[in-house]
Design a protein that fits this description.
single chain, alpha+beta, 4-stranded mixed sheet, about 5% strand
Length: about 250
């Protein structure tokens, strides 16, 4: 056999292998028979996962467990926490794992390999913001978590004002500028350019909560000084599937 024939055969074999690999990837992205997502009747940690299922047209059972019923469910939860994702009867925990899984469903465009590093960077920054928000959040919900045991209601109120005031004036602006820089570095309007990815779905509910006027001592116009952020958020909320999702929640 000539060298030319060998090379041609090798090329054909490589091409076939690539086709098979892509078919395998597509088969892995197929939605399972049943998906159930359990969380409280709020957005918070589960919302990015819900949005990923919505964007990939993946049917799922959206179970909202009332706070008063959480104790019974908590007793059977592996880590004593939610959200809990049940895929064909198997429970999965940790919302970051869930959104990365959901992002690979459908055509996989929510979590493309070509942008995976940038997506993970944005999600990592979101994780850092969540960590830095925890003292301000729990100063009102559970101050004992941060060593403030048995404080009076007046002291608790003063603590909330102090912690959330520092968050608004010193901590959040850094993250808003970093998110702005990331958006400015793309051709927009999203974190990876013209297509929504799980990076956008992770950050959206995280920042959206601050604009609703429901977090005490965090002004609902806190994002207004960052027009790149507000423009991005408007584009996200105008996306037909996301708009339909939130319209249905009203």
């Amino acid at each position: 056999m000539s060298t030319k024939a060998v090379l041609a055969g090798t090329a054909a074999g490589v091409a076939l292998a690539l086709v098979v690999t892509e078919l395998i990837k597509r088969s892995k992205r197929q939605a399972p028979k049943s998906i159930k997502l359990e969380y409280f009747p709020i957005e918070a940690a589960a919302e990015k996962v819900r949005l990923a299922f919505v964007m990939t047209d993946t049917p799922f059972e959206d179970v909202r467990i009332p706070f008063k019923e959480w104790g019974a469910r908590k007793a059977t939860a592996k880590y004593g926490q939610m959200p809990i994702l049940t895929i064909d009867g198997k429970e999965i925990y940790q919302s970051r794992a869930m959104v990365q899984y959901a992002g690979k469903l459908g055509d996989g465009s929510l979590y493309p390999e070509a942008d995976a590093l940038l997506i993970d960077e944005v999600i990592g920054l979101s994780d850092d913001l969540a960590r830095d928000w925890m003292p301000g959040l729990y100063s009102g919900m559970n101050p004992a978590k941060f060593g403030y045991d048995g404080i009076s209601d007046d002291d608790k109120t003063a603590l909330v004002i102090k912690m959330r005031g520092k968050f608004v004036s010193e901590i959040l602006p850094k993250y808003l500028q970093w998110f702005t820089d990331l958006l400015n570095a793309t051709e927009g309007p999203f974190f990876c350019g013209g297509t929504i990815t799980i990076a956008d779905l992770v950050v959206l509910p995280q920042l959206k909560i601050f604009t609703k006027g429901v977090v005490d001592h965090v002004p609902k116009d806190v994002l207004e000084a960052y027009p790149v952020i507000t423009t991005w958020m408007a584009a996200m909320l105008a996306t037909p599937k996301i708009k339909a999702w939130y319209d249905a929640q009203k």
